[in-house]
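Assemble and predict.
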Amino acid sequence: MKAVEIAAKVRSGELSASSVVQSSLALIAATDPKVNAFTAVLAERAIKRAGQIDKHTRRAELSLAGVPFAVKNLFDIAGLPTLAGSKIERDAAPASRDALLVRRMEAAGAILVGALNMDEYAYGFTTENSHYGPTRNPHDLTRISGGSSGGSGAAVAAGQVPITLGSDTNGSIRVPSSLCGVFGLKPTYGRLPRLGSYPFVASLDHLGPFARSVADLAFAYDAMQGPAPDDPACAQRPPEPTRELLGGRTDGLRIAVLGGWFREMAMPEALAAVDAVAQALGTTRLVELHDVDRARAAAFLITNAESSTLHLADLKTRAQDFEPLSRDRFLAGALLPAAWIVQAQRVRHAFARQLARAFETVDVLLAPATPCVAPVIGTEWLEINGQRLPARASMGLLTQPISCIGLPVVAVPLWGCNPAAPHLPIGVQVIAAPWREDLALRVAAELEAQGLATAPVAALN
Amino acid sequence: MSLTPAQIEAMVQANAAALGLRIAVEHKPGVIAFVTLAAAMAERVMGQELGVEDESGAVFVPVSPRGPLA
């Protein structure tokens, strides 16, 4: 069941939150040995909280009453060390309170049931975590779930919970959404507060939800909006609710497909997905941007340097304890000249202004979320645009230029775009101007209403 | 202009020493490979012409004290 249906039934008394949580916990127990999405299951806490929701005097007012959810394990959960996918943070003191977004979700009636696997310190696109094992794609267990929020994408695709939270610095919500076949929202940079989450790259980090429907995304997103004065990156805007706007018309919107880099670095299945979305929305318009590769390079450099500096003390004293897949990259990032990083920040600024000009003539832009469907776990190389490229880093080729400038994006899942693997999904990015999450959600809802974008629960064969 | 392998290696050694960061022998090839990749990215970034209006994206946000001000 989707979150909106669960909440309606719990509010009306047709279902108890306790029974919903018990079902979710049973499904996690039955399926997670195959998927490996969870690193902690909070059965006792969730059952206690569900009992409180069932007795809540204002249950009928809770938008997410009784909805189970889980969070990437970089969100603080009271009583647990915040792992951020690492071995090193197992030694950290337990968090004293939940992350702000967890508290906001629970204030709306949702119930936290667990913490989810991820790439170590969010530095990856595959969730092939050497410490906690790979999270497997529920639609094909031999394949990656994407990352770094791989557990968040997989848990929703497996039907373990209807909503999860993740983070996106370079694509870490949109890539697993694409590969696991679920909807994901990366809001505008600065929209949702990050208090109580383990940072990766403060200049680029976003938090956001995953779900199996656009309405579920919007309900979760609306519950989490609002200023947070203690978070310097939070824009301190009042909530701008979206869930009532989903049914709005899209035929008046100016929609275009991103050309150039966004088509050159996409395999045929990714192009087929974008073209199907464009056709469904009745657009043939193409927008060509320049310097997209420079924006991607800027995101790469900022990420590398900023994240390495964050972990420099541990890199000096216990480099052997880092994830082998990202350790050398972290070490390298500490050694880059300052001028490269400052210039990268300036390039980012210039690219953001270029997109602002583009949004004077369009409302929504479309691009693939990943260059291809989910590769098999352990894949080292991909052939894209005639180039042999490292597979893991290449999963973010099409998302990095967009998150680099903080635009809001809804990733929508399509199916059957790769004739050789029709069981695998691939996502399309629905991109809007800053602070216009409502437009991206509205277009995503239209694609869902047409039956083009869907997020079925995986059979786990 | 691209950095040569020798220049990359010299940069790795010098910057690691400046930071007090020891690069173990078994990590050195991987570190050099990633710095080489970063250098290729930097070439693209450094090649973009920018003006004074293209300020840094890393804008500082002042932090106000809690409670009412005098």
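The first strand of chain A starts at residue 38 and ends at 41.
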